[in-house]
Design goal:
The protein is of the alpha+beta class and about 525 residues long. It is elongated, with a radius of gyration of 31 Å.
Amino acid sequence: MNKEQVMAYMKRNKALLAGTAVAAIIGVSFGAYAILPDHPGDPAAVRYDVADRNSAAPARMMENGTPFSFADLVERVSPAVVSVTAEEVDKGGAQPDLEDMPEAFKDLFRQFGGRPQMRPQPQPRKATSMGSGFIIDKSGLIVTNNHVVDGASKITVKLPDGRSFTAKLIGTDASTDVALLKITADKPLPIVEFGNDRTLRVGDWVVAVGNPFGLSNTVTAGIVSSIGRDIGNSEQPYTDFIQIDAPINKGNSGGPTFDLKGQVIGMNSMIFSPSGGSVGIGFAIPASTIKDVVAALQSHGRVARGWLGVQIQPVTPEIATSLNLKEPKGALVASLVPDSPAARAGVRQGDVILAINGAEINDAHDLTRRVASLPAGKAAAFAILRDGGHQNLSVTIGAKKDTVVAANTGAPEGGPANFAVTGKAMGLGLTALSPEVRRAYNLDESVQGVVVTKVDPESDAAEQGLQPGDVVVSVHNKAVHSPQDVEKSVAQAHSAGLKSVLLLVSSGGTAHFVAVPITKT
């Protein structure tokens, strides 16, 4: 083919080549769909294929260029998504027996209507809540949220085909908001399967099925907005939520979140909403978490977790700088429970836990989850940073009861202190502890250190929340007992070339660390 023939061919097939280029762009951008010409030279003949990463594709593009549909996926999984109704008997508040009233009050009642009469006792009333769930085993095992069935005296499960069953509660785990139910049917039930949430990426499609506002089998779709989300919920410290923008409303709780293969990658649990309605910020419990909890509930009826016995807080960039850490990773020990596994193993206040059994700890939330997953009675190897050096400790993990595994105290309200050091002890008024000072600020005898008596309203300290009555316990893990001790420790840190110092502060009896940048004065 000569030059003229090549130019003529390109001119004739200009539209086809452009279409192919667009198809390539679409394939790269979305990673799921490719537009391919059926017949070379005929740009009008186009087919739509799903290029699923795992060769299983219930969602597909439709003919004639119309958008793909979730219909096949929904049709397949919907029979296993159920309505859960929980009934609770509210007996009402107890009423006083007027016959047992003091005589003076009886006289008061006589003045306004004769002898005292007993008020009728309130009649018990039935409170009902509704949610969603999904069947994971043909024998009738159903997963839902703990908060859907919490306190219920009767649980009813209704299938999409209209059948209703009274469910037995196998077990619940409030710390992950997971509950396991069991119903008995005369034939195998439809089920859904768990997928691998660890392969999720931000931007992946998800489909939520549930019963919002009692409207059964309602389907919404969206994308994964974030993964590994710590939403600061103290009641669920062990869950890294999947954030999705598929609309979730009241009644969706306990319903499944599917990937495009029709596998459960999460369970709808909660939403963020200023108004009470869905604003596209929903949170799902990962399938991996649900599977672990369900296995424990099936075997033991409860979930056993490891216990360390420490209060921890995040290692902020400021704290990392004060400790000469290259990255703000690990968990800082703010305090220890007396005679806890950590205390017995030699863990100290001010230690930074960097790794457990060789696996790096990313942050305080990561430590909480990792300790919870460790078996009680077994020893674990902890790598810590102490006084600028690395050490290894063997800790025999305890069994969690009603205490917190490794509580994340976080930073005080307003964030970590970040104020300039001055000749007046960092812009703060400080005084040594005395009986009079303790009484003035209602400080417990167990608290030792230097008391903050004044905060410059123009200082960053005021903006960050430090206030009179706070106690500076130590500077760089060295105890202080006077304002002079504080200034001396700060001066030594400055002379050593440190850019900031680490203060241990007690606020309302709770200890936490703050990093203070050092500036020349």
